[in-house]
Amino acid sequence: MKRTKQPKRSFSFLQINEHESKPRKRGLTEIRGPYYSLVGRRYLEDLFETMGAYVDSLKFAGGSFTLMPQRAVQE
Q1: How far apart are CA 69 and CA 62, in angstroms?
Q2: Between 30 and 1, where is the model more confident?
Q3: Which residue has the higher pLDDT, 1 or 68?
Q4: For residue 15, what pLDDT is reported?
Q5: What are phi and psi of 42, to 5 degrees?
Q6: Which of these, 35, 44, 30, lies nearest to 73 by C-alpha position?
Q7: Residue 64 DSSP code
Q8: CA-to-CA distance for 8 and 62, rounded, in angstroms?
Q9: Nearest CA-CA partner of 62 in 37, 29, 30
């Protein structure tokens, strides 16, 4: 896994707890996918483009991935 650099933040005057750079062993951030909405590849691309430096894992809610075509999950 390649290491990611923390991006320059908007509103940098607001204090936040800083994360270690990736790959992290502590301070992991998990996002859970929406329960009642469809999540496609473009949603995930947008999510990782804007917040990828902070996201360590994504959990598909309620087993929704089992209904997705195999190719979509692999991509």
Answers
A1: 16
A2: 30
A3: 68
A4: 86
A5: -65, -35
A6: 44
A7: G
A8: 34
A9: 37
Q: What is the pLDDT of residues 3-47, one digit of tens each?
A: 556 677 788 888 877 778 888 888 888 888 777 777 777 888 898
Closest CA to 51 of 15, 10, 14: 10
Pairing label, strands 57-59, 30-32: parallel
For 64, the token pair is: 């929704």
Token reading at 24: 């992290």
For residue 27, give both structure tokens: 């301070």
> Which residue type is seen at 49?
E
64 Cβ neighbours under 8 A, 6+ residues apart? 33, 35, 39
